[in-house]
Write a structure and sequence with these properties.
This protein is mostly beta strands. 7% of the residues lie in helices and 32% in strands. It is built from 3 helices and 15 strands. A hairpin with a 6-residue loop joins strand 1 (49-53) and strand 2 (60-64). The longest helix is centred in the first third of the chain and has 6 residues, at 3-8. Mean pLDDT is 84; it is low at 1-39.
Length: 222
């Protein structure tokens, strides 16, 4: 389809072996404790930074202080990659994506790496977890119905609900608004990737960009 969409969903179309050879290593810009905010999914409320690294053979989730000290590996799966780490608003938990069970699932763990739990337990590929501002819910993208839709679930994995349900398009990279009332996401339901916003219950989806170019990765201003 589109080059960007193919990159986002590379896990959906290539073998696990190929994934293991090309771990995802997103760049994290160091920031100081004074400028970190709970709205940044990679930075905890205490200023620690979560990131992915393949230094131990395949991609794992690490944390470090804002000055780069105390780099600590939190995940240690024998198989698969762990990516897309996202702090809970209170900084006590981290949601992330791992394919260590054979396909991409949304996991959650304590900030010290303990208590790792598979939340989605789905045969489909799940990715891009994002916490609601109150920490009670997590939104994510999933291909449970053959195309990617935006889902929401309780923070313990229960109550998984399809918010977009667009069988002929892909909806990806969801982000909560700071008040938790809306969700921004990217979708190609109008033919090319555009930025949409909808209510937190999935109602009122609106195309914001309406541009012939590909528009992706929305982020709300704090």
């Amino acid at each position: 389809m589109f080059t960007y969409l193919k990159q986002i969903f590379s896990f959906f179309f290539v073998s696990t072996l190929l994934i293991g050879c090309q771990p995802i290593m997103p760049t994290v810009t160091p920031i100081t404790i004074e400028t970190s905010t709970p709205s940044d999914p990679l930075v905890s409320t205490t200023g620690r930074i979560a990131f992915n690294s393949s230094r131990d053979g395949h991609s794992e989730v690490y944390t470090m202080n804002a000055n780069g000290s105390e780099q600590t590996r939190l995940t240690a799966f024998k198989e698969g990659d762990s990516v897309f780490a996202a702090w809970s608003p209170d900084g006590r938990k981290i949601a992330f994506v791992s394919d260590q069970d054979g396909n991409r699932e949304i996991y959650v763990m304590n900030a010290d790496g303990s208590g790792i739990t598979n939340l989605t337990r789905s045969p489909a590929s799940d990715q891009s977890p994002a916490w609601s501002p109150d920490g009670k819910k997590i939104i994510f993208a999933s291909v449970q119905n053959g195309r990617s839709d935006i889902f929401v679930m309780n923070a313990n994995g229960s109550g998984q609900t399809n918010l977009t349900n667009t069988p002929t398009a892909d909806d990806i990279t969801p982000k909560w608004s700071l008040d938790g009332l809306q969700i921004a996401f990217a979708s190609n339901q109008d033919g090319n990737l555009e930025i949409y916003v909808m209510n937190a219950d999935g109602s009122g989806p609106t195309n914001l960009t309406r541009d012939p170019a590909e528009d992706t990765d929305p982020a709300w201003q704090p």
